[in-house]
Design goal:
single chain; alpha/beta; 8 strands
Length: 278
């Protein structure tokens, strides 16, 4: 895998997949390597994906200073990657927890971002909260096809969870719990740096008021994509996130959970590729 040096000297790795103008892709987790993104449902047929392994994950090195796992400090890693690739401006795509980093980058370096795609985003960088009731409302949409998972989610929200409850809700992160979804879920084991994840959003990582002010002046086009049945990033909250941008296109992918390129790759690619072409 090709590598580059972060500002503190940590050697970071990335993968190039596909052809065409590059799109820098930030994985979620948070602090999970980019392997689970795969080919983003075939999006690589339209653009070249630059899939970054965040520091301490995948093929990227573990930093000497573990406080550098904090999201605001990772902004420098993205900027170093841009410089390494020789890009004046670039399209930026992020998923889940990685969207917090993408948002912080766009707020600090708006002139560098040509287009911003936030896929089933986490809204913590802008101070939006996702409540247990938000999640339970989404879970209950699945009561016919995943009754046991919904019951487990109800137990979690009401404080009656058992050790088995957390595993039982796994199907709710996908639009359908078929063989492809189960394989995708199983393949993620061991790819997240839990120590780094605990630091990623720790005290000082986010300044929501400052970030919101910066996003209100962000002039580049933005795609904010939610999954209709996404337990992790409920569409109602994602819609609030999208409203913070002056030029955001908010899209709900029907029947999709937290990984829309797995649930319906054709629809996901059609939506995202069209946005990136504009």
């Amino acid at each position: 895998m090709p590598t580059f040096s972060a500002p503190d000297g940590t050697v970071l790795a990335y993968r190039l997949v596909g052809e065409g103008d590059p799109v820098i892709c930030l994985p979620g987790g948070p602090m999970q390597d980019a392997e689970y993104l795969g080919d983003l449902g075939g999006l690589v047929a339209h653009r070249q994906m630059v899939l970054l392994d965040p520091r301490g994950t995948g093929q990227s090195a573990v930093p000497e200073d573990v406080s550098s796992y904090r999201a605001d400090r990772l902004v420098g890693d993205v900027e170093a990657l841009r410089e390494h690739l020789g890009l004046e401006r670039f399209d930026l795509l992020a998923h889940s927890g990685g969207t917090n980093l993408a948002t912080l980058y766009a707020a600090k370096y708006p002139e560098r971002v040509a287009k911003l795609a936030l896929i089933t985003p986490s809204p913590f960088a802008v101070g939006l909260a996702i409540t247990g009731e938000n999640r339970l409302e989404i879970a209950r949409l699945r009561k016919n096809d995943q009754p046991e998972a919904v019951a487990a989610m109800e137990a979690i929200v009401t404080g009656q969870a058992t050790d088995d409850s957390w595993k039982a809700i796994d199907p709710l992160f996908y639009g359908r719990w078929d063989a492809a979804a189960q394989a995708h879920h199983a393949a993620q084991d061991g790819h997240r740096n839990d120590e780094a994840a605990a630091i990623y959003g720790s005290d000082g990582a986010y300044d929501p008021a400052t970030t919101r002010t910066a996003l209100a002046a962000f002039e580049a086009p933005v795609l904010v994509l939610a999954g209709e049945v996404d337990l992790n990033s409920p569409p109602a909250v994602v819609a609030e996130f999208a409203a913070l941008f002056p030029k955001a296109e908010f899209v709900i992918q029907p029947g999709a959970g937290h990984f829309p390129w797995v649930d319906d790759p054709d629809r996901f690619v059609a939506t995202t590729a069209e946005f990136l072409r504009k």
